Amino acid sequence: MKILVCISHVPDTTSKINFTDGNTKFDTNGVQYVINPNDEFGLTRAMWFKEKQGASVDVVNVGGPETEPTLRKALAIGADSAIRVNTEAKDGFAVAKELAKVVTDGGYDLVIAGRESIDYNGGMVPGMLSELVGANFVTNCISLEVDGTNAKAVREIDGGKETVNTSLPLVIGGQKGLVEESDLRIPNMRGIMMARKKPLNVVEPIGANAETAANSFEKPAPKGAVKLVDADNIDELINLLHNEAKVI
Amino acid sequence: MSVLVYTESENGKLKKAALECVSYAKAIANDMGTSVTAIAINANDIETLGNYGADKVLNVKDDALNPFNAKKYAGVIEQAAKKEDSKVVVVSSSADSKYLAPLLAVGLEAGYVSNVVEKPSSLSPFTVKRTAFTNKAFANTEISTDVKLVGLSNNSFGLVESGGSASIEDFSPSISESGVTVESVDKAAGKVTIADAEVVVSGGRGLKGPENWGLVEDLAEVLGAATACSKPVSDLGWRSHSEHVGQTGKPVATNLYIAIGISGAIQHLAGISASKVKVVINTDPEAPFFKAADYGIVGDAFEVVPVLTEKLKAFKAQNA
């Protein structure tokens, strides 16, 4: 089985979010980048398939040279090779089109992406990719087993979960549950050394058009100070929630 | 040219998010000078859609569309959009709608923007405001394609009753094949989900162990609320992952969010920041959550929460 894991290069979850150039660009100053957490669960599940079922695992990112350390980290975790599509990730559709080319050229059976990235949260790349390459698609995936060309997946739904049967070729939108937090791997020194020698292939983009553009950004309005209520005066809290906030 | 809105239902009953999406579609249609067409799949109470602004309902009843299947549903909505020649299509932010929307976007060659929180600030260029960086910011996003697909964030626009009525038209689209079939659905009946809840009661490590979750559940029951938890609680296995709210868990955009024994890590606060009113109960007055909350009680959850639950019970009985 040939597996491709899509890796988004995103600001660490603790990052402060600021904008520059008249609020038109994300301020990367002082921001640490990581593998998108939803993608990391998928990558770790892919490593399980590699070790238990003899799969090959490649990782891919659509982005500039600055994303390469994130791909190297994925190699250090255990992926066999990396592909970087050398273009700015303009919007979900453009990224999906670039990825579709990689998937078709590489003949991948299983593509695992995160259900969404934690920067733009669009949640659209895996689904669009599945349509573009004509593969089956399961998102919010919290469990995945593959037997030959058959796959069984569990999808988180509002208020529960759903077990589905499907088959390869398949695109997964993964999240926590594919593996547990405690299964995530911190690259060790040997992994990091080996990652330096693994192939990281830079491919030129097909030049897919974006359909959407984030023209400007805003931060939420600053919040007023918290109103503290004495622990012995719960009636006051109920009064505030009823008469002031009007939520009960 | 009407604005098309997919009105999601469950067990034949329209969801609140469906009515919100119709209210939203009506506001766009008014600005565009056009009408609203709703598409309902295996829903029974569709007469009510007129009250929220639908002029017409395309009524699809087909056992092949039960249970939900993203590919088939996307195909049905695509046919409806083409039949109506709709240039704007609205869906909600439920798990199912977010599943089908990217497939629909490709089918309609529509630019898709999810997590939208306001009606378009401009129709030409078509520009909507959406959340980004897990609610730490908003992005004003332009859609440049002929057909636009808008995913409305739950609880962001609200319900607007217009008192109208809709004509109902039976619609029998062709149903596409899907390579995904549902084997089983595991869903607690009658339990309020985080996605649909007006109120969420959430517990953190301050509750000391899963055996103390009765506190959270009792309070949630009085309020008709969904229960949730912080990331450490789900990582420790005290509660299921499906309850984890925050940046890598579920986002919460509810009217009232009550956090008990949650210190307020930046990732947690990001995930719940779209909630309108936040209440924190924590023993530590320095907990970061107090900076993000509207109301706070510095106190021991084990003493405060049972009293709050009892007093709310009395309040609810009085105001019922």
TrEMBL record, chain A:
The record, for PANTHER family, names: ELECTRON TRANSFER FLAVOPROTEIN BETA-SUBUNIT (PTHR21294), ELECTRON TRANSFER FLAVOPROTEIN SUBUNIT BETA (PTHR21294:SF8)
The record lists the organism as Winogradskyella jejuensis
Q: Does the keyword Transferase apply?
A: no
The family assignment reads:
Belongs to the ETF beta-subunit/FixA family.
Provide the protein name. Answer: Electron transfer flavoprotein subunit beta
Tell me the Pfam families matching this sequence.
Answer: ETF (PF01012)
Any one GO MF term held by the record is: electron transfer activity
Q: Which residues form the Electron transfer flavoprotein alpha/beta-subunit N-terminal domain?
A: 23-212
Keywords on record: Electron transport, Transport
TrEMBL record, chain B:
Task: Report if keyword Flavoprotein is assigned.
Answer: yes
Q: Which UniProt keywords apply?
A: Electron transport, FAD, Flavoprotein, Transport
Positions annotated to bind FAD: R205, G261, I262, S263, G264, A265, I266, Q267, H268, N282
Full protein name: Electron transfer flavoprotein alpha subunit apoprotein
Q: Does the keyword Electron transport apply?
A: yes
BP-aspect Gene Ontology terms = fatty acid beta-oxidation using acyl-CoA dehydrogenase
The record's listing under SUPFAM superfamilies reads: Adenine nucleotide alpha hydrolases-like, DHS-like NAD/FAD-binding domain
Required co-factors: FAD
Which SMART domains does this entry report, sorted A to Z?
ETF (SM00893)
Q: Name one GO molecular function term.
A: flavin adenine dinucleotide binding
Family the UniProt entry places it in: Belongs to the ETF alpha-subunit/FixB family.
Q: How is the cofactor bound?
A: Binds 1 FAD per dimer.
The uppermost taxa in this organism's lineage are: Bacteria, Pseudomonadati, Bacteroidota, Flavobacteriia, Flavobacteriales
Electron transfer flavoprotein alpha/beta-subunit N-terminal domain mapped to chain residues: 3-194
State the Pfam families in the record.
Answer: ETF, ETF_alpha
Task: Give the species.
Answer: Winogradskyella jejuensis
